[in-house]
Amino acid sequence: MTSALIDQLHATGYPVTLDALHRRVWSGEFVPAPAGYVAASVTALPTAEPTPFARFGLAVAPWPGRAVPTDVAARFASGLLDLHRAVLRRALDQAVRHLGERNSEGTSLLAKQLVQAQLADVAMGLREDEVMPPERRSGDRAARWRTHQRLVRLGRAVLYLFGASGFLVDGPAGELYLAEVTGNIYLHPGTEESDA
Amino acid sequence: MPELLDDTLQALDGFCRDVSGDFRELGRLLDRDPDVIGEYLDRPGVRLSRFVAIPPRYWTGPEAPANLVGVLRTVLGQSVAWERLAYGDPNVWLASPGPALSGGVIDVLATPAQADRYYQRLVAEPLHTFFGLTEPAKGSAATELETTLTPADDGDGWILDGEKCYIGNGARAQFGVVFCRRAPGLLGIEAVLLDCATPGFSGELLSTVGLRGARISRMRFDRVRIPAENLLGAHLPATRRGLYGVTQVLYRARPTIAAMALGCAQAVCDYVRSQRRTLAGYDRLHLEDVVDRIAAVRLLIHRSAADVDRGVVNSHRLGAAKARAARLSEEATLLAARLLGPAALVEHPWLEKIYRDVRAFEIMEGTTNLHRMSVFRGVLKNTFLTASEPPGNGHATGH
């Protein structure tokens, strides 16, 4: 994950950054998921049937047809995980700012031990992900799914730090939700392997 | 349903199951447009949601079977009912007109004349109300709230200034209760009735990830005049007014919110079973683990609710029940999205909706972190876990 990805996310939001990932890994084509769907921004898929995801700027459309080369699918899946990490990293920074601006009982929320411990939990989880050996991090579909599940749990943990604002579409909750949804569409290894 | 429920409570559960048969359909519609509830006011479940928190003496006809009217006024009864209604869909009750939490404030703080005025208005028309406690900078910390109530310069009532955030129905309600500060300190907190047509009031609907039927809102008060007769609790001693009203309402509401979360968790597990009838191995183990914990948390909720009905409040255990239920509902949806396979959130629209909806329970009635701190205090005081407590028996009391 690069700071450029975080900057891009900041500038354009999750759906448009997802569009860029499509273009980057498969010569400008949309990469369909194994389950036969494409997820992209509502701008990129203007004719897609409306779904509940549209409120978040995401379109999901059935995509029958061309098979995806294995290396393209793997690069796209790894790119999705990088995007999820970028959302998380941005959310952590936002959480620190948010908590620093909030006061309770005369002190900053950042000074509360419970809050500090929760922030540390999230940071440790991200660090663990950073140093994970590549084959265990994204070596195959099962590894990528396990990584996705860990990132989802970290996302929920970081949102708990935002209180009620962690339930608003605008902000980290909306982007983390999209990372969960795209992972569910693209990274799920199938029910037979889901315990892997 | 739970093993500890007597015949009346089981009958209540069955009644709520009957009237909530269309809640999945209504919930789907509310997720698209939260205001659509106005078109379904005659549905039995919506009608029950509207009238259940109105004292039966104000009803103009039978709104529930006679044998269930009494138990519907108890916290245990409401916990049973809310779990079953949320099993259908958690949005419908929250989107429905009626007193909701503000009615609890009226019951504790209003004079008989104020209560008559409030409830008669709600019986006459399907109106929405709000419970204005949480603030943008202070969350639901009632002791720290900053919205002010000052005497009007002309001596005619009061002036309300400030802001509330994350208030259910705040931007759609016709009236409700606002907690505010008249003076420094714990005894300086008051509750007032606010009519939303009053100049200086504005409400804005917030876009939330889920539970859109709750119509979570931001509200602003810019020199809003409050008539003297709308100050609640003026006839009561200072120790029984604003803050006391807040805590009494929240103690009564907490088990019911926990029960709603639990109803959703149970619904998700049942949905998974209906879709994958042959779960095996770790899949089955993980699902059964969640089902085990649902059963345990249900007992925590029912015991806490029964305690509140007896006037005995262990706030640490009350908060723990809500915190565990909220997290369990999230875990159930995460597990379901895994067990139902690739693109489950696309191919199972109900799951996708409830997956978003249950996230609200984390922030309703205090976040899990707040309750964790309360549990910690309970552990230190030895009122959370009691080593000497006989298994299956009552538990320690304390605050």
Task: Describe what is shown at a glance.
The complex is a heterodimer of chains A (196) and B (399). With 196 residues, chain A is mostly helical.
Which percent range describes the beta-strand content of chain A? 5-15%
CATH fold title of chain A:
Butyryl-CoA Dehydrogenase, subunit A, domain 3
Poorly predicted ranges of chain B = 388-399
CATH class of chain A: Mainly Alpha
CATH architecture label of the largest domain in chain B:
Up-down Bundle
Described by strand count, sense and barrel closure, the largest sheet of chain A is: 2 strands, antiparallel
Order of strands, main sheet of chain B, comes to: 1-4-5-8
Secondary structure category of chain B: alpha+beta
Oligomer: heterodimer
Task: Give me the secondary-structure topology.
The complex is a heterodimer of chains A (196) and B (399).
Chain A: H1 3-12, H2 14-25, E1 37-41, E2 58-62, H3 70-101, E3 103-104, E4 107-108, H4 113-131, H5 134-138, H6 141-160, H7 172-186
Chain B: H1 7-19, H2 23-32, H3 44-51, H4 66-69, H5 75-88, H6 90-95, H7 100-109, H8 112-124, E1 129-132, E2 148-151, E3 158-168, E4 175-181, E5 189-195, E6 201-205, E7 216-226, E8 231-232, H9 242-275, H10 281-309, H11 315-339, H12 344-347, H13 349-357, H14 368-381
Parallel strand pairs in B: 1-4
Antiparallel strand pairs in B: 2-3, 3-7, 4-5, 5-8, 6-7
Helix pairs in contact in B: 1-5, 5-9, 5-10, 7-9, 9-10, 9-11, 10-11, 11-13, 11-14
Cofactor (chain B): FAD
Pfam families (chain B): Acyl-CoA_dh_1, Acyl-CoA_dh_M
Family (chain B): Belongs to the acyl-CoA dehydrogenase family.
What does this molecule look like?
- Chain B: This is Acyl-CoA/acyl-ACP dehydrogenase.
- Chain B: InterPro entries: Acyl-CoA_dehydrogenase, Acyl-CoA_Oxase/DH_mid-dom, Acyl-CoA_Oxase/DH_mid-dom_sf, AcylCo_DH-like_C, AcylCo_DH/oxidase_C, AcylCoA_DH/oxidase_NM_dom_sf.
- The complex is a heterodimer of chains A (196) and B (399).
- Chain A contains seven helices and four strands, in the order H-H-E-E-H-E-E-H-H-H-H.
- By secondary structure, chain A is mainly alpha-helical.
- Chain A has one domain: Butyryl-CoA Dehydrogenase, subunit A, domain 3 (Up-down Bundle), CATH 1.20.140.
- Chain A has a two-stranded antiparallel sheet. A two-stranded antiparallel sheet of chain A has the order 3-4.
- In chain A, strand 3 and strand 4 form a beta hairpin.
- Chain B has three domains: 118 residues, Orthogonal Bundle (Butyryl-Coa Dehydrogenase, subunit A, domain 1), CATH 1.10.540; 112 residues, Butyryl-CoA Dehydrogenase, subunit A, domain 2 (Beta Barrel); 135 residues, Butyryl-CoA Dehydrogenase, subunit A, domain 3.
- In chain B, the strands form two sheets. Chain B has a four-stranded mixed β-sheet.
- In chain B, helix 1 runs parallel beside helix 5.
- The longest helix of chain B is centred in the middle third of the chain and has 34 residues.
- At the A-B interface, strand 3, helix 4, helix 6 and helix 7 of A face helix 10, helix 11, helix 12, helix 13 and helix 14 of B.
